[in-house]
Amino acid sequence: MYAGIFAAFIFVESPGLGIGNFFYVPVCLIALVTDETRGAVAGVLATAVYATAVVLAPAVPSTQALTTATGIRLVTFTIVGALMGFYANRNRQLVDRLRDHAGRDFVTGLGNARTFDDELARRCAAGRPFALVLADADDLKDLNQVHGHAAGNAALKRIGEVLRQHAEPGDVVARIGGDEFALLTSLPADQIIALQARTNRTLSSENLSTTFGVTFCPADGQTSAELFHKADDRLFAAKLVRQNRATVVALADRSA
After folding, report:
1. Are both 81 and 142 inside the same structural domain?
2. Which CATH number characterizes residue 160's domain?
3. Which of 48, 50, 130, 205 has the fewest CB atoms within 10 Å, i.e. is most exposed?
4. Given pLDDT bands bounded at 50, 70 and 90, which one contains residue 188?
5. Residue 216 located in a structural domain
6. Which of 221, 240, 242, 241 is nearest to 231 (CA)?
7. Closest to 136 (Cα-Cα) out of 27, 248, 247, 242
8. Are 166 and 227 part of one and the same domain?
9. What is the percent of the chain where pLDDT is above 90?
10. pLDDT single digits (tens) 212-251
11. Closest C-alpha among 5, 1, 227 to residue 116
């Protein structure tokens, strides 16, 4: 646009026509896609191109190249570029923050169900092996009833921190439900078992624990629905085993 307006000024401009005002357009466009610094630089460049066009235009006296009007153009081009760049950049930052908040769970700071679903679908489409691990916080309902929801939220936050701590750098950890977390990882089965043990070992000192259900792609399924359904079934089965074990221990204690 600089070149187009420059050419139009050279061949079409006449006193009073004001083609030089069109230099605001490229200044604004550059500012909108960059920031205040580049917007101001675009304004300075527009002034330099304008002054050059005044010198070369046959219908415009070259003595007008360095005048008060040119100085005013320098100020206005620069200010407009800087202001538009500032607000455009500020708006992009706000949009990025909103997008980030929209994809995060407000209690734990982890990704939420929507972010996790998108990542699970992406990994399924990629066709590379990975594991889906579901983790359910044990006895969260009892904790909420006895100590209140603030304690329950603190427990959820702590479980999320521990899962993130023991996960690999490239893994995705998210809270996908009230007391349910999910992990996408490329670890093999034996290392996932070790991760589960480390997680509960860390949580046990705070009287917290989690129950896990795991599926592997492509062995257990190749779609998000298949993997999630099987992982949820295995999580439910593990919950039943845990509850039955607790019941047996309680009955044994009573008989003793």
Report:
1. no
2. 3.30.70.270
3. 205
4. very high
5. yes
6. 221
7. 242
8. yes
9. 63
10. 999 999 999 999 999 999 999 999 998 888 766 654 444 4
11. 227
